[in-house]
Amino acid sequence: MKALQYVEIGRPPEVREVPTPEPGPGEVRLRVTAAGACHSDSFVMGLSDEEYEQFGYPLPMTLGHEGVGVVDALGAGVEAVAVGDAVAVYGPQGCGRCHACAQGKENYCPHAAELGITPPGLGSDGAMAEHLIVRDPRHLVPLGDLDPVTHVALTDAGLTPYHAITGSLTKLGPGSTAVVIGAGGLGHVAIQLLRALTPATVVALDISEEKLALAREVGAHHAFASDEQAAGRIAEAVGSTTVTAVFDFVAAQPTVDLGAALLGPESDQVLVGVGAASTDVGMLARPYDSTIRGPYWGSRSELIEVFELARTGQVSVETERFSLDEAPEAYHRLHEGTLRGRAVVVP
Question: Residue 265 and residue 313: Cα distance in Å, rounded?
């Protein structure tokens, strides 16, 4: 079968012929119908030799931690799904036995690393291939009648902002303001989620005029350039120099500094992007009772909730479609920042 693999550190991924995998006991094989490209993949492929070794990822590795497909083979003992089922893959997989996993919060499993359990495409072979092995059927969520191509990105680009936003829901009541920094693949979904889940005024910030236009299209009340004038524009638009919550989908030093400058008492600064930055903390360094959080992905139950929002038309993902042979170009476009929304690879 064909698969898009990261083969050599520092080199673009390659489409290669690899053996078609067979499911072992308890495993499920999917015929992949769509796989999403994500900045997390670009982050991994941008690591140096030493940094990559710290993560312990194998080479070659099939990419793709956003995946949907149709069950086409079952390992011994599997009864929870049937051949022909349309399913989505829950990516942040844990041990399945601890307190976090029992709540469906496998994204916070404390034992995954020590057991060598890694998400597909981020440590084990992922969904950018004609077939994918899933370790356990509990990691499969029914897709139902949702279109696989237009909804595959919800497994990360929907789940991750949903999890980030639900942590601040109690604060986002009438009269609140939520700022979304970065209106790209995850950010444009976050805007829709904020509009669906809260009465907050939603402000989008980005350096790209095209992405600001997309932010307005999907429901942002205001959309401004993310520059030194942004705080003043927000204050003029909402009538306050502080906001209730900042959801930063970049998390680079300039955006973290901007987010911190917007905080007031009890405000949330939520760093979702895979960037790295520093900021001052402490009672005298930040407004009273303000918080800073770094959420990761989301729970299995939250993924089910995201799909329900999609079924009722409250959230969708802007996608550009690529064949498996075109997948390297999808990552090139992702790196260049020229995608509108998310890139989806269809084997």
Answer: 35
Distance CA 71, CA 66 (A): 16
Strand ranges across the sheet with 61-62? 14-17, 2-6, 61-62
For residue 245, what is the domain's CATH number?
3.40.50.720
- Give mean pLDDT, residues 76-92: 97
Kindly state whether residues 272 and 338 are assigned to the same domain: no
The conformation of residue 249, written as its DSSP 8-state character, comes to S
- Averaged pLDDT, 290-315: 97
CA distances from 72 to 84, 153, 262 (A): 6, 22, 50
What's the whole-model pTM score? 0.95
H-helix segments, the chain: 39-45, 49-55, 99-102, 148-151, 159-166, 187-197, 209-217, 230-238, 253-261, 300-311, 327-336
Q: Find the DSSP H helices in 103-198.
A: 148-151, 159-166, 187-197
